[in-house]
Amino acid sequence: MTPHTPSAALPPAQISLSQTLATVSAQLPEDAVSVRDLLRLIGEQGMLFLCIILAIPFLTPIPIPGVSTVFGMLIMLISFGVIINRVPWLPKRLLDRSVSSQAMSRVLEHGARLFARFERLVRPRLLYLTRAGASRINGALLFLAGLLLIVPLPVIPFSNMLPGLAILCLAVGMLQRDGVFVILGWLLIAVTIIYFAAIAVGILAAGGSLMSLFSE
Length: 216
Prior knowledge:
mainly alpha; 9 helices; 3% strand; globular
């Protein structure tokens, strides 16, 4: 495999994620493939697809305890890679770890089949919202969504679902060149911020009421 500089450049709009995963599966080495080689083959499509996978557990109204911090930090790391247009830094020991090419091929082909169904819901539109300059903005908003996912609100309904949906829409929009999904991601981030602000105001108001009761 010819080495090249890791890049997070967006793929051509006409190449779908399912097609990319199938192509990568066909290009795997015969025996084993390292994480480093896999990242070089998949590029940003792999990172954003990982964002989609990490967002799925949060698509329920009730937050899932114990995973939002770890998953949120991973999403923030990936989004930083999108902003700087480079594969994000990972420890060398992890990058050099190899897995069976046969096993990885099965995973990639399964992912391609699953995403082929989802791709029917999206299509390239409003392309200016997914080009290079806009991708940096979208990466920054993806970073913000990952940060919102980490906010410690373990018993508040929708506190993980809203940023999780935002992450999903942004990642799908950037992958599939669908500006409508990108806009949905922006709106969901705005709704999340408003929702969290309302919760904060409510908590402060309740705290002020309690203090008034004790001071009387």
